Amino acid sequence: MRLYGALEGRNRRTLSGVFLYVLVIMMVTSYIFGSPEGPVWLGVFWVVLLFSAVNIGVLSYTQETGGRRLYYFQLADPLAVYLAKSLFIFILLLMVSLVSLALLGLFHGWPVVQPFYLWTGIGLGSLGLAFLFGFLAAIGSQTRSSATLSTVISFPLVIGLAMLSGKITKASLLPGATWNMLKDDFLMLSGLDLMIAGLGLLLFTYIWRD
Q: How many folded domains does the chain comprise?
């Protein structure tokens, strides 16, 4: 994990590109929508986060070519590489979420009345995206069309993660939302995260050694 942090600190292309993208989107949506209602506010946030997840996941693996991949192969266990990479993507997604929410609050106001549901949905959704793109970007990095392949393969799972996470975060806009209303969604989203993590842990070793 510290290795990825040091490497990203030397090459800030991924972070600078993602945060520039976030800033531009917020400025454009502020110009177009003005002060949108709560659901539109959340929709803008999830669009930003999903595209950021794709960019972070793909770019983080396209930098690992040839000699660097061989060095990691000799230095660390494949599962450790997968978990470190997923944790790194997860932390970056949380950083993007913080910046996005700050800019949304600045440009569009703050409609959230129950922050617990907002951050729980973001946390579980970001964790699932980190495990997913940590695994799929490794698959894509074995081909010439890494970004296209990773995006196409991940589409069904991304939709599931986005729908469940979006439903939980939408409850943050409702003063009367309760745990009982969202219990099934929490369980399904947690189960989907565990399924993606298990799939990654099971298959990553074979992909990495290819």
A: 1
Structure tokens at 9: 């600190």
Q: What is the pTM of this model?
A: 0.85
Domain housing 48: 2-208
Q: What is the pLDDT of residues 118-128, one digit of tens each?
A: 999 999 999 99
> By CB neighbour count within 10 A (0-12 exposed, 13-18 middle, 19+ buried), where does 206 fall?
exposed
In angstroms, the CA 101 to CA 179 distance is 23
User: Residue 58 in contact with residue 140, Cβ under 8 Å?
Assistant: yes
Residues 6+ apart with CB under 8 A from 41: 104, 108, 109, 111
Q: What is the DSSP string of 81-115?
A: HHHHHHHHHHHHHHHHHHHHHHHHHHHH----S-H
Q: Which H or E run includes 72?
A: helix 67-75
What's the one-letter identity of residue 210?
A: D
What is the distance of C-alpha 146 from the center of its chain? 17
Amino acid letter, residue 174? L
Residue closest to 128 by CA, chosen among 98, 171, 160, 172? 160
Q: Please tell me the distance from the alpha carbon of residue 142 to that of residue 36, in angstroms, as a whole number.
A: 42
> Alpha-carbon distance 87 to 99, whole Å?
19
Residue-wise pLDDT tens digits, 43-63: 889 988 888 887 777 666 655
Q: Could you give the CA distance from residue 151 to residue 138 in angstroms, rounded to a whole number?
A: 12
CA atoms in the 13 A half-sphere facing the CB of 165: 26
